[in-house]
Amino acid sequence: MKISQEKKHVAVFVFPFGSHPVPLLNLVLKLAHATTNNLQFSFIGTEHSNKPLLSKPHLPDNIKFYSVSDGVPEGHVLGNHPIERVNLFLEAGPENLQKGIDMAVAETKERVTCIIADAFKCANNSDTNTPLDFIPGLSKMRVEDLPEDVINSGSEEETLFSKTLASLGSVLPQAEEVVVNFFVELDPTSLVHDMRSKLKCFLYVGFLTLSLPLPPLPPSDTDATGCLSWLDHKKKKNGGSVAYVSFGTVVTPPPHEIVAVAEALEASGFPFLWSLKEHLKDLLPRGFLERTSENGKVVAWAPQTEVLGHGSVGVFVTHCGCNSVFENMCNGVPMVCRPFFGDHGLTGRMVEDVWEIGVRVEGGVFTKDGLVKCLRLVLVEEKGKRMKENALKVKKTVLDAAGPQGKAAQDFKTLVEVVT
Ligand code: UDP
């Protein structure tokens, strides 16, 4: 095969779970727009992770998608834990990724000159209450906030995923660049210095799921599930006291917690908008939807960024998925956090103890009384007012950081130089 030496060919490896693929594709789109057509991108995911991305409008011709196997053996019935899928994918990983590269090279006739791969930042220790003060800037974090797969690394419960996470510590310093989906202005300075001393090049390119400043809210009649017009109506009646509840795309809270959330929303009397997957509606207490139909709205999917930007939302009850938290930070809404797994714990701790823009639920799980207490704290009490003020300050920091004077624009330029 004749391989052209002129074009640059970037292979992009996706972590094909949850909302990981979207920010990575957005980074590639930004790179594609900032560079010439002389750069070819091969976006390598699974059929399942690529499918929703292909419907994105205005995908440039120099981004091509390739699907490799998800590693789930034929006929295998998956259990409920999302990590099972991850481990199966990782088992098939090395062979799969080579296949992805082979496919991309065969079709484009360009050898790969650069690899961009999704990765995780992590650290390890054993006692769950130990503060992470051995990492500069993370003294407020505890070992228990780390993803369980990081804590389990080296233990009997070690999985392929936890081994992979542990090995990242030694691999990342070899990367030409480590790029984070975050703003340097929001991270503790000592953490940034420490990471920069350990990595060849550490770049912060801002929130990749959002174009900032956010566009004005669309007219509410274009909103298929009626969330925005419902919020318009609530604003007139209740001001900014709607609780918006969502647990993202992956988490399925246990049935007793769904019931606790429903009971708390009903008992608190605050208006609420709940994005709840269709199949979980059956778990709601009998008569809940009818009894709360005046005060509440339950939908299978909400236009989340717009909802958070609607002035009537006073609190966001969240699982602390990073995209949800980022979308929220751009809109200045205080949070009630119920972290489930992965990076949720660290994010929840940042929200409560570092940025002071929210509160984690007592005991780490939803109970009726615990959630009512949190909702009142944020929406009624003095402490909640301070959280709102802090949330507005964070919003301003984010909007400034995303502007032309912010560091993300400079770091993105550096990334473009290396990739090209
Ligand atoms: N989302 C949404 N509407 C919903 C629920 C979720 O638009 O009703 C979006 C949300 O805006 C976010 C993403 O789904 O961009 C969830 O990502 P996150 O990182 O918060 O959680 P994950 O799904 O990865 O657990």
UniProtKB/TrEMBL annotation:
Pfam families assigned to the protein according to its UniProt record, in alphabetical order: UDPGT
Give the UniProt keywords, A-Z.
Glycosyltransferase, Transferase
Query: One MF term in GO for this entry?
Result: UDP-glucosyltransferase activity
Which residue ranges does UniProt annotate as crossing the membrane? none
The record's listing under Gene3D superfamilies reads: Glycogen Phosphorylase B
Is Glycosyltransferase one of the keywords?
yes
Would the keyword Transferase be found if you checked this record's keyword annotation?
Answer: yes
What family does the database annotate?
A: Belongs to the UDP-glycosyltransferase family.
* Protein name, as recorded: Glycosyltransferase
Q: What is the species of this protein?
A: Glycine max (Soybean)
